[in-house]
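Contributing new records

If you add data, match the layout below exactly. Sequence lines come first and carry their own label; structure lines follow with theirs. Keep one chain per record. Anything else will be rejected by the validation script.
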Amino acid sequence: VLHGATADIHLRAGDTEQAIGSLLAGLTLLAGTDLGTGRAELHLQLGACYHEQAGERRDLLAKAGHHYHCALQSVTAEQAPGGFAAAHANLAAAYLTMPMSEASDQLRLGIAVASLRAALTVYRPESHPGQWASAQLNLAKQKGIEVARGDPRRNQPGHRIVIPERPAQLSVVEVDLDQLRRSYLRHALAS
């Protein structure tokens, strides 16, 4: 715990390398203990440090992904729902940021989609609106749906999600709920 707090101090001071050193030292101390939640939190922080430094550097994104995986091996959704969901969402973001240039990229893409779905088992619009929206939009992009900013009247269900650029672009749209129910049932029965 103290190493995590020390890492936070280093990060606030802009010293990522010292923060990484503190986190690695904390993980060394926790190795072989039954303090899975503590290990998961340090792995999550360490993954975030590498992720933040990475840009599109595959080596640092891979290190971030490794630590997100380690966090997920240390806890379950029941033990630490917030950490579980954050590790899955961050793992997906790291994998989706990596350049696609190898045969294993399709597998990585599948893991990212599975991680987004796992994060959504915890993230709900009522309790985690920002994280829920981010995971939903990343999932939509992976399903081939265009996500753009602009005039929301350009929305095209199943094809394009347009996020308003200004509050003045928000409006109420009347929807026929009976037709929506029928459409939902028709699609549910077809799949």
